[in-house]
Amino acid sequence: MVLEVIVDISTAEVDRPFDYEGEDMPLGSRVAVDFAGRHTVGFVIGKKEKSDFASLKTARFLDTPVSAEQLLLMNAMREKYNLRHIDVLRLFVPAKLREERDPEYKRIYLALADGLDVEDVCTALARAAKQREIVRYLSERDGEFLSVLAEKFGAGAVKGVRDKGFVTESAVHEARTPLKMLTRERKAVTLTSDQQSAVDEISAGKGVFLLHGVTGSGKTEVYMAVIERMLAAGKTAIMLVPEIALTPQILGLFRARFGDSVALMHSGLNAGERYDEWKRMKDGRAKIAVGPRSAVFAPLENIGVIIIDEEHDSSYVSESNPRYDTKEVAKMRAAAAGAALVLGSATPDMESYLNATEGKYNLITLKKRISAYQLPEMEIVDMVQEFRYGNRSLFSAQLADAIGAALARKEQVILFLNRRGFASFIMCKECGYVAKCEDCDVSLTYHKSENVLKCHCCGRKYHALSRCPSCGGTNIKQGKVGTEKVVEELQALFPGVRTLRMDNDTTTRKDSYFRILDKFAAGGADVLVGTQMIAKGHDFPNVTLVGILEADAALYFSDYRSSERTFQLITQVAGRAGRADKKGRVILQTYAPRHYVFRFGRTYDYEGFWRKEINTRMVTKFPPFTKVVRVLVASADEQSAVDCTRNIYRGLLAVEGRVGKFVYIGAAKSPVTRMQGLSRYQVLMRLQPEIFDAVMPEVYRLAAENKPAKGSCFAEINPQSLI
Hints:
This protein is of the alpha/beta class. The chain has 21 helices and 30 strands.
């Protein structure tokens, strides 16, 4: 039998199947192969009777980690997103299976050898006290793990009793369970009539459902009730959340409801944990996958429902290789499985809501909170007036008073600022010098806790400045503040206030998301300061006040989605207040209080905002009425980047002449012209839906043909960022 094998090597030159000889095995099987003088693994994607090559190497069967359904999905993703075989395969297969050795975690277990007389052995070990202690310890129990014995008695003593043959050894498999300490008490919940109707409609149907529910309307209870019905019918379920930060809360709720049927998938797990959770699903021991976008590739069979919570979130679009849109992948997988796809949000994506209004999606609305209180009242503070009154603080007088009152009542506060660090840039006031990264064309952010300047593009760190390197001046100005500065000013304003900060700087360690959120939920802090990580999904009953700082920070970005994203952020973070039996309050600080985003946001009027924004998109011909496509060229040699960009642009002009006029096409430097030492140029297009399918193969072809020798070139559809 001739096997067509994709070898686990990620280069363009080997992005095709290679012929190997082997036994008949299912498609999707993992095999051990020799390739170009190295021993590696591969995956069988096809079979045939004959090969064009006279002699073939042999592929040895290992296992079958990829199902036929998954192979079909892989092929669809390759075609849609122009991806390499192995890059797609790696999405479905844990890293532990990319090597031939046994992926399971086994611990060495020691027990006393049969037939030993303990007293005789102890006499023989009269001059080895630690070894004697080990023997007596093991005599009192069935055995113990080697690692435990080494910690108790020392590695040398353990080696001694092993070398002398006083113990027997065995390998014991032990599952690596992530966040195993995370459990919650299950509470009896009675669904509202609206929730029950939503559950009934989703459980009985197929296709795509848009669950539009205000914050606190009980969407999570709807999700769990639907999943419960699917499990009762012998089906499985996938539950996606946008942030790793949301995973602990959802995981705790799901484990309380479904126990060991829940498996966790996300990038924060180590390789062993990821494999063990994958294996539990593959073997059918776990029926529910919970996690961010990677969970859409869970090895579950007979899927009944795929749920995407906070479906509007940009994190569902992968912006690194392999690039894909999780919602589109979920649609493909749900359609193939005959499953329901549920998109849930208080602020749905513009396109999702348009599809719902046009009947392409089934729209289900939850208009009321399940608690006795309504959505928290939102108060808008004009920071221009605060400045005129002489207030130079980060906090308006209104917000400062509200924080003090909440603290006095022993209630908790959330302060939101979507910018980490202490100061977003450092500038010399004498000559105008701005500290920038040497490898990226971006200003450096000052981090006071580390006393360093840090590039938020490449992560490179620099010494903090006390003197301008250009003119030698000492009059150094700090730019826009970040979360670190907010904490400092808060502690100065309210001495003794207990604060927690949650951003990319405080969540680098494993389980740090869980530890911060768990501590805050347990009352271990009075105020939680954070970026978008804290904006959605979290439920803290004692939070009665939310302060939104610099609400207009992203409003004037050169991005057609800036208004939409601002509305989503303020609505989501506002929804963290007043989620129990205590009335909530939101204070939003802005320099543009009359902007329509805040006018609609103040009353949580999503429909009003959507009508305004969708009409603007229609007139200006932006998505969802067109597709934005970007080809980004990056190279260490700037002239090479320029030449490749020019070739792509000219090639696309020729395509335009054949298939029809584009709404827009242009070529220029990228807004961030240098990143990680590479010069960056781009071609931007806006394409009508009717020509999109005809143009994209040409876009991919031109990008592949014009990749610079010392760099990269790739195409993106509706990129989440244009920097």
